[in-house]
Amino acid sequence: MNAARAGHSASILSNGKVLVTGGNNGSGLLDTAELYDPSTGTWIMTANMSYARAGHTASILSNGKVLVTGGSGNIASLDTAELYDPSTDIWAMTTNMSYARFSHTASILSNGKVLVTGGYNGIARLDTAELYDPSTDTWTMTANMSYARQGHTASILSNGKVLVTGGHSAIASVDTAELYDPSTDIWAMTTNMSYARFSHTASILSNGKVLVTGGNNGSGPLDTAELYDPSTGTWTMTANMSYARAGHTASILSNGKVLVTGGSGNIASLDTAELYDPSTDIWAMTTNMSYARFSHTASILSNGKVLVTGGYNGIARLDTAELYDPSTDTWTMTANMSYARQGHTASILSNGKVLVTGGHSAIASVDTAELYDPSTDIWAMTTNMSYARFSHTASILSNGKVLVTGGNNGSGPLDTAELYDPSTGTWTMTANMSYARAVHSASILSNGKVLVTGGNNGSGPLDTAELY
Predict the structure, then answer these.
(1) CA atoms within 13 A on the CB side of 25
(2) Which residue ranges form the domains of the chain, and what is each CATH number?
(3) CA–CA separation, 375 vs 348, rounded Å?
């Protein structure tokens, strides 16, 4: 990459390129974004985001645009969201979220809306959730979650409900899980996980079950993994991973296996990667990455390869990126991003490019965004977001725009949100969320609205949720 970054995001665009946005380079947050082109193995800077950010989210909307939400900004967590349009390389602000938040989640629902949940606002974890509606550019609060949580996961099940698991509450990590029903706007508790965990991953397998791996229970990283069965509402332990890890990534490959990369281990950050085979319940080590990293992103490209960008190695934020080829079990370095980032987002646009937004750089949170083009392996800067942010979310709306919500700008959580339009490459501010939040989640519901849940508002975790 052109810049070292951790806490950034990486998104695979419809053209196959990977957009990396924001993050932290060790000296501060970044507003830069760059594009990776797999066909050439090069990075090209895109226009900067309006806000520097890390710990944000990046979601690819149905119209190809990338929505970047929240994150930690230069001064405080962000409630801002912005949209990146790959076709024009322009960032445009959307209306702000109701809550500033970072380390939240963002989920694209079947109706095209984006559900943002939880996170941290710099003072407290959030139980709030909100929905972003791309058709109206508005945020709407939903019912609150049962638990305030930060560093949790949000997964959209085949029945349209959203499963939220774990996270860090006001006091400690939690093993609780709950379901949101978009049709009734009701949260309902489901059975608890076997282990309390935050900074874990949740992957929906082809059989409909959800695989949760690793994370931290407050005493250290975990090597445990467990499966949730939506048909019974029960959890079952699987075989343990080879390495305990938190802040890692989990990607479902075309062969059905799950690739887990990096993370923070018991002693140091990890360069190891391993594969889980659901058909045999066996974990197998793959070749190591070139760089140890956590709080990075992993994006599955149209050619089946996995693009890993940025992150933090325990000493510095990274601008490096590398590709994993499942067919050969090998890692290959790509061109560097323009900025080092951690806690950023990465969204795959309809044109195949990947929009990366915000994150925490070497010095502070950034508002930059960049596009990666897999066909040329080039990163290109796009316009900046309106707010620097990390630990935000990014959701791709049905119109192709990307909704970015909340996050932290370095001084606290944000309630702002902005929309990125890939066709113009511009960001547009949307209405603010009701609550500032970071480390939250955002899910796009089947009705097109976006549900934002939980996160942290700077005082502690939130149980609030809101709809855009």
Answers:
(1) 27
(2) 9-467 (2.120.10.80)
(3) 13
Tokens of 342: 């951690």
| pLDDT on residue 40 | 87
The 10s digit of each residue's pLDDT in 63-75 is 899 999 999 998 8
CA distance 25 to 41: 22
**pTM of the full structure:** 0.79
- DSSP-assigned states of every residue in 273-294: EEEEETTTTEEEE-PPPSS--B
Q: What is the mean pLDDT of residues 97-119?
A: 92
Q: What is the mean pLDDT of residues 342-352?
A: 92
Helices (H) and strands (E) in the chain, counts: 0, 41
Of 226, 271, 283, give the one whose Cα is nearest residue 245. Answer: 271
Q: Residue 197: which of 174, 219, 227 has the closest Cα?
A: 174
State both tokens at 114: 């984006």
- Which residue type occupies 320? T
Query: CB count, 10 Å around CB of 411?
Result: 18
How far is 91 from 356, CA to CA, in rounded Å? 12
Q: Tokens 């996270």 appear where?
A: 167
- Residue 400 tokens, joined: 């192709």
Task: Kindly report the backbone phi and psi dihedral angles of residue 146, in degrees, each rounded to the nearest multiple of 5, phi listed first.
Answer: -75, -25
State what percent of residues in the chain have pLDDT above 70.
100
Please write the tens of the pLDDT for every residue from 388-423.
999 999 999 999 999 999 999 999 999 999 999 999
Query: Cβ neighbours of residue 167 under 8 Å, at least 6 residues apart?
Result: 118, 125, 147, 149, 150, 151, 152, 153, 173, 174, 198, 454, 461
Question: Using CA atoms, how far apart are residues 307 and 269, in angstroms rounded to an integer?
Answer: 19
Q: How far is CA 295 from CA 64, 245, 261, 284, 375, in A?
A: 25, 11, 11, 22, 26
CA dihedral 132, 133, 134, 135 (to 10 degrees): -160
- Report the C-alpha gap between 213 and 205 in whole angstroms: 13
Helix (H) or strand (E) holding 203: strand 201-204
